[in-house]
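Worked Example 4.2. Read the sequence first, then its C-alpha coordinates.
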Amino acid sequence: MNNVQLLPQPAAPTTSTTYKPVELYIFIDPLCPKAFAMKSILRKLQLQYEHYFTWRYVLSTELSALNSVTNRLKGCCGGDELDIAHPVLPSIAIKAAELQGKRAGSRYLTKLQQYAVLKTKNVNSHATLLEIAEEVGLDMNEFAIDFGSKEAARAFQCDLYITREMDVDDVPSIVFFNECIEDEGLKVSGSYQYEVYEHILEEMLGEELVSQPIPSIEDVFKRYELLTTEEIAEIFSVDYAIAERELKKRMLQQKIERITNEDVTLWRLK
Protein backbone atom coordinates (compact mmCIF):
# COMPACT_ATOMS: atom_id res chain seq x y z
CA MET A 1 0.00 0.00 0.00
CA ASN A 2 1.88 3.04 -1.32
CA ASN A 3 0.02 5.65 0.73
CA VAL A 4 1.27 4.45 4.13
CA GLN A 5 3.96 6.50 5.85
CA LEU A 6 5.68 6.54 9.25
CA LEU A 7 5.44 9.79 11.21
CA PRO A 8 6.80 11.08 14.57
CA GLN A 9 4.44 11.21 17.53
CA PRO A 10 2.64 14.58 17.98
CA ALA A 11 4.15 16.86 20.61
CA ALA A 12 1.10 16.73 22.88
CA PRO A 13 -1.09 13.70 22.28
CA THR A 14 -4.58 13.72 23.67
CA THR A 15 -5.38 11.65 26.73
CA SER A 16 -8.38 9.68 27.95
CA THR A 17 -9.60 8.79 31.41
CA THR A 18 -10.08 5.21 30.16
CA TYR A 19 -6.87 3.56 29.06
CA LYS A 20 -6.83 2.95 25.31
CA PRO A 21 -3.48 2.15 23.71
CA VAL A 22 -4.06 3.59 20.21
CA GLU A 23 -4.96 7.09 19.08
CA LEU A 24 -6.32 8.02 15.66
CA TYR A 25 -5.84 11.44 14.07
CA ILE A 26 -8.54 11.64 11.40
CA PHE A 27 -7.81 14.35 8.81
CA ILE A 28 -10.91 15.51 6.93
CA ASP A 29 -12.34 18.32 4.92
CA PRO A 30 -15.66 18.29 6.81
CA LEU A 31 -17.85 19.11 3.80
CA CYS A 32 -16.06 16.98 1.22
CA PRO A 33 -18.03 13.97 -0.09
CA LYS A 34 -14.98 11.79 0.65
CA ALA A 35 -15.40 12.62 4.35
CA PHE A 36 -19.02 11.46 4.18
CA ALA A 37 -17.91 8.18 2.59
CA MET A 38 -15.33 7.64 5.35
CA LYS A 39 -17.98 7.90 8.08
CA SER A 40 -19.30 4.36 7.68
CA ILE A 41 -15.81 2.91 8.12
CA LEU A 42 -15.13 5.02 11.21
CA ARG A 43 -18.49 4.13 12.71
CA LYS A 44 -17.91 0.42 12.21
CA LEU A 45 -14.45 0.75 13.79
CA GLN A 46 -16.05 2.49 16.76
CA LEU A 47 -18.75 -0.12 17.15
CA GLN A 48 -16.32 -3.04 17.03
CA TYR A 49 -13.06 -1.72 18.44
CA GLU A 50 -13.61 1.56 20.30
CA HIS A 51 -12.29 -0.12 23.46
CA TYR A 52 -8.83 0.01 21.84
CA PHE A 53 -8.57 3.59 20.61
CA THR A 54 -9.32 7.25 21.11
CA TRP A 55 -9.69 9.58 18.16
CA ARG A 56 -9.80 13.20 17.16
CA TYR A 57 -10.76 14.97 13.96
CA VAL A 58 -8.26 17.36 12.39
CA LEU A 59 -9.84 19.83 9.97
CA SER A 60 -7.68 19.99 6.88
CA THR A 61 -9.35 22.45 4.53
CA GLU A 62 -6.92 25.05 3.25
CA LEU A 63 -8.81 28.34 3.38
CA SER A 64 -7.75 31.97 3.06
CA ALA A 65 -8.84 35.22 4.65
CA LEU A 66 -9.39 33.66 8.08
CA ASN A 67 -8.61 36.84 10.01
CA SER A 68 -10.96 39.04 8.00
CA VAL A 69 -13.81 36.57 8.34
CA THR A 70 -13.23 36.31 12.10
CA ASN A 71 -13.44 40.08 12.41
CA ARG A 72 -16.75 40.11 10.52
CA LEU A 73 -18.03 37.34 12.77
CA LYS A 74 -17.49 39.56 15.79
CA GLY A 75 -19.95 42.02 14.29
CA CYS A 76 -22.57 39.32 13.85
CA CYS A 77 -22.09 38.02 17.37
CA GLY A 78 -22.35 41.54 18.72
CA GLY A 79 -25.91 42.00 17.51
CA ASP A 80 -25.49 42.77 13.81
CA GLU A 81 -28.40 40.97 12.12
CA LEU A 82 -26.70 40.91 8.70
CA ASP A 83 -25.96 37.28 7.87
CA ILE A 84 -22.65 36.39 6.23
CA ALA A 85 -21.52 33.29 4.39
CA HIS A 86 -18.00 32.02 3.72
CA PRO A 87 -16.42 28.58 3.16
CA VAL A 88 -14.29 29.02 6.30
CA LEU A 89 -17.26 29.41 8.64
CA PRO A 90 -18.19 25.71 9.02
CA SER A 91 -14.66 24.87 10.16
CA ILE A 92 -14.62 27.70 12.69
CA ALA A 93 -18.08 26.65 13.90
CA ILE A 94 -16.87 23.09 14.50
CA LYS A 95 -13.94 24.36 16.57
CA ALA A 96 -16.30 26.66 18.50
CA ALA A 97 -18.52 23.67 19.27
CA GLU A 98 -15.49 21.66 20.41
CA LEU A 99 -14.82 24.32 23.05
CA GLN A 100 -17.90 22.85 24.80
CA GLY A 101 -16.31 19.40 24.75
CA LYS A 102 -15.26 16.70 22.31
CA ARG A 103 -18.71 15.12 22.21
CA ALA A 104 -20.34 18.48 21.53
CA GLY A 105 -17.94 19.01 18.64
CA SER A 106 -18.66 15.55 17.26
CA ARG A 107 -22.43 16.10 17.47
CA TYR A 108 -22.04 19.41 15.70
CA LEU A 109 -19.89 17.96 12.91
CA THR A 110 -22.38 15.13 12.34
CA LYS A 111 -25.33 17.50 12.13
CA LEU A 112 -23.40 19.89 9.86
CA GLN A 113 -22.68 17.04 7.47
CA GLN A 114 -26.34 16.02 7.53
CA TYR A 115 -27.34 19.56 6.53
CA ALA A 116 -24.73 19.49 3.76
CA VAL A 117 -25.91 16.15 2.38
CA LEU A 118 -29.58 17.13 2.41
CA LYS A 119 -28.79 20.53 0.83
CA THR A 120 -31.78 22.22 2.42
CA LYS A 121 -29.82 25.24 3.65
CA ASN A 122 -26.53 26.98 2.98
CA VAL A 123 -24.06 25.47 5.47
CA ASN A 124 -21.59 28.30 4.79
CA SER A 125 -24.12 30.73 6.30
CA HIS A 126 -23.55 32.12 9.78
CA ALA A 127 -27.29 31.91 10.52
CA THR A 128 -27.48 28.24 9.49
CA LEU A 129 -24.45 27.36 11.61
CA LEU A 130 -26.12 28.98 14.63
CA GLU A 131 -29.25 26.96 13.88
CA ILE A 132 -27.22 23.74 13.87
CA ALA A 133 -25.72 24.61 17.25
CA GLU A 134 -29.18 25.08 18.71
CA GLU A 135 -30.42 21.83 17.17
CA VAL A 136 -27.65 19.76 18.79
CA GLY A 137 -28.23 21.35 22.18
CA LEU A 138 -25.18 23.54 22.61
CA ASP A 139 -25.09 26.45 25.05
CA MET A 140 -26.06 29.15 22.55
CA ASN A 141 -24.65 32.11 24.44
CA GLU A 142 -21.32 30.36 24.79
CA PHE A 143 -21.34 29.19 21.17
CA ALA A 144 -22.14 32.65 19.80
CA ILE A 145 -19.22 34.12 21.73
CA ASP A 146 -16.82 31.31 20.82
CA PHE A 147 -17.83 31.44 17.15
CA GLY A 148 -16.40 34.95 16.87
CA SER A 149 -13.48 34.37 19.22
CA LYS A 150 -9.75 34.13 18.60
CA GLU A 151 -9.74 30.76 20.37
CA ALA A 152 -11.90 29.08 17.71
CA ALA A 153 -9.89 30.63 14.88
CA ARG A 154 -6.62 29.57 16.51
CA ALA A 155 -7.95 26.04 17.05
CA PHE A 156 -8.69 25.81 13.33
CA GLN A 157 -5.28 27.25 12.50
CA CYS A 158 -3.74 24.63 14.81
CA ASP A 159 -5.46 21.90 12.81
CA LEU A 160 -4.03 23.33 9.59
CA TYR A 161 -0.59 23.43 11.24
CA ILE A 162 -0.85 19.75 12.26
CA THR A 163 -1.90 18.90 8.70
CA ARG A 164 1.19 20.60 7.32
CA GLU A 165 3.55 19.15 9.94
CA MET A 166 2.37 15.61 9.19
CA ASP A 167 2.54 16.24 5.43
CA VAL A 168 -1.09 15.31 4.95
CA ASP A 169 -1.94 16.30 1.39
CA ASP A 170 -4.76 13.87 0.74
CA VAL A 171 -7.98 13.91 2.75
CA PRO A 172 -9.42 11.94 4.29
CA SER A 173 -6.32 10.41 5.89
CA ILE A 174 -5.81 8.65 9.21
CA VAL A 175 -2.66 8.60 11.33
CA PHE A 176 -2.40 5.79 13.89
CA PHE A 177 -0.28 6.31 17.03
CA ASN A 178 0.37 3.68 19.69
CA GLU A 179 1.07 4.17 23.40
CA CYS A 180 4.86 4.39 23.00
CA ILE A 181 5.74 8.02 22.37
CA GLU A 182 9.10 7.03 20.86
CA ASP A 183 7.39 5.05 18.09
CA GLU A 184 6.44 6.69 14.83
CA GLY A 185 2.85 7.02 13.76
CA LEU A 186 1.49 5.25 10.71
CA LYS A 187 -0.14 7.55 8.16
CA VAL A 188 -2.69 6.05 5.77
CA SER A 189 -3.51 8.52 3.01
CA GLY A 190 -6.82 8.23 1.21
CA SER A 191 -9.62 5.73 1.69
CA TYR A 192 -9.41 1.94 1.74
CA GLN A 193 -11.57 -1.04 2.53
CA TYR A 194 -12.56 -1.54 6.17
CA GLU A 195 -10.32 -4.61 6.51
CA VAL A 196 -7.23 -2.48 5.84
CA TYR A 197 -7.88 -0.27 8.89
CA GLU A 198 -8.74 -3.35 10.94
CA HIS A 199 -5.39 -4.91 10.03
CA ILE A 200 -3.46 -1.72 10.82
CA LEU A 201 -5.14 -1.46 14.23
CA GLU A 202 -4.11 -5.05 14.95
CA GLU A 203 -0.54 -4.34 13.85
CA MET A 204 -0.36 -1.26 16.08
CA LEU A 205 -1.59 -3.28 19.06
CA GLY A 206 0.64 -6.25 18.35
CA GLU A 207 -2.09 -8.69 19.30
CA GLU A 208 -5.20 -10.29 17.90
CA LEU A 209 -8.21 -7.98 17.96
CA VAL A 210 -11.23 -8.88 20.06
CA SER A 211 -14.28 -7.24 18.53
CA GLN A 212 -17.45 -6.13 20.23
CA PRO A 213 -20.63 -7.49 18.61
CA ILE A 214 -22.37 -5.09 16.24
CA PRO A 215 -25.62 -3.96 17.93
CA SER A 216 -29.05 -4.15 16.33
CA ILE A 217 -30.02 -1.76 13.55
CA GLU A 218 -32.27 0.09 16.00
CA ASP A 219 -29.41 0.55 18.48
CA VAL A 220 -27.09 1.74 15.72
CA PHE A 221 -29.68 4.40 14.83
CA LYS A 222 -29.93 5.41 18.49
CA ARG A 223 -26.22 6.15 18.47
CA TYR A 224 -25.84 7.74 15.03
CA GLU A 225 -29.34 9.16 14.34
CA LEU A 226 -29.17 9.47 10.53
CA LEU A 227 -27.64 6.80 8.30
CA THR A 228 -27.54 6.03 4.60
CA THR A 229 -28.27 2.63 3.10
CA GLU A 230 -24.58 2.41 2.19
CA GLU A 231 -23.58 2.96 5.82
CA ILE A 232 -25.91 0.21 7.04
CA ALA A 233 -24.50 -2.14 4.39
CA GLU A 234 -20.93 -1.33 5.48
CA ILE A 235 -21.59 -1.61 9.20
CA PHE A 236 -23.39 -4.94 8.93
CA SER A 237 -21.19 -6.32 6.12
CA VAL A 238 -24.12 -7.05 3.79
CA ASP A 239 -24.95 -6.22 0.20
CA TYR A 240 -26.69 -2.93 -0.54
CA ALA A 241 -29.87 -4.75 -1.61
CA ILE A 242 -30.06 -6.65 1.68
CA ALA A 243 -29.52 -3.47 3.70
CA GLU A 244 -32.22 -1.65 1.73
CA ARG A 245 -34.66 -4.52 2.23
CA GLU A 246 -34.09 -4.54 5.99
CA LEU A 247 -34.55 -0.78 6.18
CA LYS A 248 -37.74 -0.84 4.13
CA LYS A 249 -39.06 -3.64 6.35
CA ARG A 250 -38.55 -1.44 9.42
CA MET A 251 -40.10 1.51 7.63
CA LEU A 252 -43.24 -0.55 6.99
CA GLN A 253 -43.21 -1.48 10.68
CA GLN A 254 -43.07 2.30 11.38
CA LYS A 255 -39.81 1.92 13.31
CA ILE A 256 -37.81 4.20 11.02
CA GLU A 257 -38.52 6.82 8.39
CA ARG A 258 -36.87 7.81 5.12
CA ILE A 259 -35.60 11.28 4.18
CA THR A 260 -34.68 11.80 0.54
CA ASN A 261 -33.57 14.38 -1.96
CA GLU A 262 -32.35 13.99 -5.53
CA ASP A 263 -28.88 12.91 -4.39
CA VAL A 264 -29.22 10.85 -1.22
CA THR A 265 -31.52 8.75 0.94
CA LEU A 266 -31.17 8.94 4.72
CA TRP A 267 -32.93 6.91 7.40
CA ARG A 268 -33.69 7.68 11.06
CA LEU A 269 -35.78 6.35 13.92
CA LYS A 270 -39.37 7.59 14.07
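Now turn to a second chain, presented in exactly the same format:
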Amino acid sequence: MARRGSYAKGIAKREEILSVALERVASLGFRRTSIKDIADAVGLTQAGLLHYFDSKDELWVAILRRRDEDDKDAQWDAPDLAALLAAVVRHNTEVPGLVQMFVNLSAAAATDPEHPAHAYFRECYEAHRSRMTADFRGMQDDGRLRRDLDPEELASVLLAVSDGMQIQWLYDPTRDMAEHVELVTRLAMAEVTARS
Protein backbone atom coordinates (compact mmCIF):
# COMPACT_ATOMS: atom_id res chain seq x y z
CA MET A 1 0.00 0.00 0.00
CA ALA A 2 2.78 2.45 0.79
CA ARG A 3 4.16 2.02 -2.70
CA ARG A 4 0.78 2.84 -4.30
CA GLY A 5 0.41 5.94 -2.07
CA SER A 6 3.90 7.09 -3.01
CA TYR A 7 3.09 6.67 -6.68
CA ALA A 8 -0.12 8.71 -6.34
CA LYS A 9 1.75 11.43 -4.45
CA GLY A 10 4.40 11.48 -7.17
CA ILE A 11 1.77 11.91 -9.88
CA ALA A 12 0.08 14.66 -7.86
CA LYS A 13 3.40 16.47 -7.36
CA ARG A 14 4.24 16.23 -11.07
CA GLU A 15 0.82 17.68 -11.90
CA GLU A 16 1.39 20.50 -9.41
CA ILE A 17 4.78 21.24 -10.97
CA LEU A 18 3.24 21.37 -14.45
CA SER A 19 0.39 23.63 -13.35
CA VAL A 20 2.73 26.05 -11.60
CA ALA A 21 5.26 25.98 -14.45
CA LEU A 22 2.56 26.56 -17.08
CA GLU A 23 1.18 29.53 -15.17
CA ARG A 24 4.62 31.04 -14.57
CA VAL A 25 5.80 30.65 -18.16
CA ALA A 26 2.50 32.07 -19.46
CA SER A 27 2.67 35.14 -17.23
CA LEU A 28 6.39 35.78 -16.70
CA GLY A 29 7.75 34.54 -20.00
CA PHE A 30 9.90 31.64 -21.09
CA ARG A 31 13.24 33.38 -20.57
CA ARG A 32 12.28 34.81 -17.17
CA THR A 33 11.06 31.52 -15.73
CA SER A 34 13.81 29.47 -14.17
CA ILE A 35 13.84 25.95 -12.83
CA LYS A 36 14.72 27.46 -9.45
CA ASP A 37 11.61 29.69 -9.50
CA ILE A 38 9.37 26.74 -10.30
CA ALA A 39 11.09 24.53 -7.70
CA ASP A 40 10.72 27.22 -5.02
CA ALA A 41 7.04 27.67 -5.87
CA VAL A 42 6.31 23.96 -5.36
CA GLY A 43 8.55 23.50 -2.30
CA LEU A 44 11.33 21.50 -3.96
CA THR A 45 15.00 21.92 -4.71
CA GLN A 46 16.02 22.13 -8.36
CA ALA A 47 17.32 18.56 -8.16
CA GLY A 48 14.07 17.49 -6.51
CA LEU A 49 12.02 19.08 -9.28
CA LEU A 50 14.11 17.44 -11.98
CA HIS A 51 13.48 14.08 -10.31
CA TYR A 52 10.03 14.27 -11.95
CA PHE A 53 11.45 14.98 -15.44
CA ASP A 54 14.48 13.64 -17.29
CA SER A 55 15.84 17.14 -17.91
CA LYS A 56 14.94 20.80 -18.06
CA ASP A 57 14.06 20.34 -21.74
CA GLU A 58 11.73 17.46 -20.83
CA LEU A 59 9.97 19.81 -18.42
CA TRP A 60 9.48 22.37 -21.20
CA VAL A 61 8.00 19.68 -23.46
CA ALA A 62 5.70 18.53 -20.65
CA ILE A 63 4.52 22.14 -20.23
CA LEU A 64 3.69 22.34 -23.94
CA ARG A 65 1.82 19.04 -23.74
CA ARG A 66 -0.17 20.34 -20.75
CA ARG A 67 -0.97 23.51 -22.69
CA ASP A 68 -2.22 21.36 -25.56
CA GLU A 69 -4.45 19.37 -23.20
CA ASP A 70 -5.87 22.57 -21.72
CA ASP A 71 -6.49 23.98 -25.20
CA LYS A 72 -8.16 20.73 -26.29
CA ASP A 73 -10.41 20.80 -23.22
CA ALA A 74 -11.42 24.42 -23.83
CA GLN A 75 -14.75 24.97 -25.51
CA TRP A 76 -13.71 26.87 -28.62
CA ASP A 77 -16.53 28.36 -30.68
CA ALA A 78 -15.38 27.37 -34.17
CA PRO A 79 -17.26 25.85 -37.10
CA ASP A 80 -14.16 24.10 -38.51
CA LEU A 81 -10.48 23.52 -37.82
CA ALA A 82 -9.32 26.64 -39.68
CA ALA A 83 -11.54 28.76 -37.45
CA LEU A 84 -10.36 26.74 -34.45
CA LEU A 85 -6.74 27.53 -35.34
CA ALA A 86 -7.62 31.24 -35.48
CA ALA A 87 -9.36 30.98 -32.09
CA VAL A 88 -6.32 29.29 -30.54
CA VAL A 89 -3.99 31.91 -32.04
CA ARG A 90 -6.27 34.65 -30.68
CA HIS A 91 -6.12 32.99 -27.25
CA ASN A 92 -2.31 32.93 -27.46
CA THR A 93 -2.22 36.71 -27.08
CA GLU A 94 -3.29 36.09 -23.47
CA VAL A 95 -0.30 33.80 -22.78
CA PRO A 96 2.71 35.53 -24.35
CA GLY A 97 5.22 33.48 -22.36
CA LEU A 98 3.88 30.26 -23.85
CA VAL A 99 4.11 31.74 -27.34
CA GLN A 100 7.71 32.67 -26.58
CA MET A 101 8.41 29.12 -25.37
CA PHE A 102 6.76 27.57 -28.43
CA VAL A 103 8.69 29.79 -30.83
CA ASN A 104 12.02 29.30 -29.05
CA LEU A 105 11.71 25.54 -28.93
CA SER A 106 10.12 24.94 -32.33
CA ALA A 107 12.28 27.28 -34.36
CA ALA A 108 15.63 26.49 -32.82
CA ALA A 109 16.24 23.73 -30.31
CA ALA A 110 13.67 21.21 -31.52
CA THR A 111 14.91 21.19 -35.10
CA ASP A 112 17.75 19.03 -33.77
CA PRO A 113 16.51 15.40 -33.90
CA GLU A 114 18.33 14.72 -30.62
CA HIS A 115 16.44 17.42 -28.71
CA PRO A 116 13.62 16.13 -26.45
CA ALA A 117 11.13 18.50 -28.10
CA HIS A 118 11.84 17.25 -31.64
CA ALA A 119 9.40 14.34 -31.48
CA TYR A 120 6.76 16.52 -29.81
CA PHE A 121 6.79 19.09 -32.62
CA ARG A 122 6.87 16.45 -35.36
CA GLU A 123 3.85 14.73 -33.79
CA CYS A 124 2.01 18.04 -33.36
CA TYR A 125 2.56 19.18 -36.92
CA GLU A 126 1.61 15.78 -38.33
CA ALA A 127 -1.54 15.59 -36.19
CA HIS A 128 -2.65 19.16 -36.96
CA ARG A 129 -1.91 18.81 -40.66
CA SER A 130 -3.80 15.51 -40.84
CA ARG A 131 -6.88 16.81 -38.99
CA MET A 132 -6.96 20.04 -40.96
CA THR A 133 -6.53 18.19 -44.26
CA ALA A 134 -9.50 15.95 -43.46
CA ASP A 135 -11.55 18.98 -42.41
CA PHE A 136 -10.67 20.85 -45.62
CA ARG A 137 -11.66 17.83 -47.72
CA GLY A 138 -15.01 17.84 -45.95
CA MET A 139 -15.37 21.56 -46.63
CA GLN A 140 -14.63 20.92 -50.31
CA ASP A 141 -17.20 18.12 -50.39
CA ASP A 142 -19.94 20.36 -49.03
CA GLY A 143 -18.97 23.33 -51.21
CA ARG A 144 -17.46 25.62 -48.55
CA LEU A 145 -13.88 25.47 -49.88
CA ARG A 146 -12.43 25.93 -53.35
CA ARG A 147 -11.89 22.60 -55.11
CA ASP A 148 -8.73 23.74 -56.92
CA LEU A 149 -6.77 23.81 -53.63
CA ASP A 150 -4.84 20.86 -52.25
CA PRO A 151 -6.19 20.41 -48.68
CA GLU A 152 -2.85 19.21 -47.31
CA GLU A 153 -0.97 22.16 -48.81
CA LEU A 154 -3.58 24.56 -47.40
CA ALA A 155 -3.16 22.97 -43.97
CA SER A 156 0.62 23.39 -44.17
CA VAL A 157 0.27 27.01 -45.27
CA LEU A 158 -2.14 27.81 -42.44
CA LEU A 159 0.21 26.27 -39.89
CA ALA A 160 3.12 28.23 -41.36
CA VAL A 161 1.13 31.47 -41.26
CA SER A 162 0.12 30.77 -37.68
CA ASP A 163 3.70 30.09 -36.56
CA GLY A 164 5.13 32.97 -38.56
CA MET A 165 2.61 35.41 -37.17
CA GLN A 166 3.48 34.31 -33.64
CA ILE A 167 7.10 35.28 -34.32
CA GLN A 168 6.04 38.64 -35.75
CA TRP A 169 3.68 39.20 -32.80
CA LEU A 170 6.52 38.66 -30.32
CA TYR A 171 8.37 41.53 -32.05
CA ASP A 172 5.26 43.67 -32.45
CA PRO A 173 2.23 42.83 -30.27
CA THR A 174 0.03 45.12 -32.37
CA ARG A 175 0.09 42.49 -35.15
CA ASP A 176 -3.19 40.55 -35.15
CA MET A 177 -2.12 36.92 -35.48
CA ALA A 178 -5.63 35.51 -35.83
CA GLU A 179 -6.59 38.05 -38.49
CA HIS A 180 -3.81 36.77 -40.74
CA VAL A 181 -4.78 33.14 -40.21
CA GLU A 182 -8.37 34.04 -41.02
CA LEU A 183 -7.21 35.92 -44.14
CA VAL A 184 -5.72 32.73 -45.60
CA THR A 185 -8.97 30.89 -44.88
CA ARG A 186 -11.03 33.65 -46.51
CA LEU A 187 -8.79 33.52 -49.58
CA ALA A 188 -9.27 29.76 -49.79
CA MET A 189 -13.02 30.26 -49.64
CA ALA A 190 -13.15 33.43 -51.80
CA GLU A 191 -14.24 31.82 -55.07
CA VAL A 192 -16.95 29.81 -53.30
CA THR A 193 -18.25 32.92 -51.50
CA ALA A 194 -18.24 34.96 -54.70
CA ARG A 195 -20.43 32.37 -56.44
CA SER A 196 -22.98 32.26 -53.59
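Notes for the reader: The chain is about 75% helix and 0% strand. Residues 133 and 174 are 30 Å apart (CA to CA).
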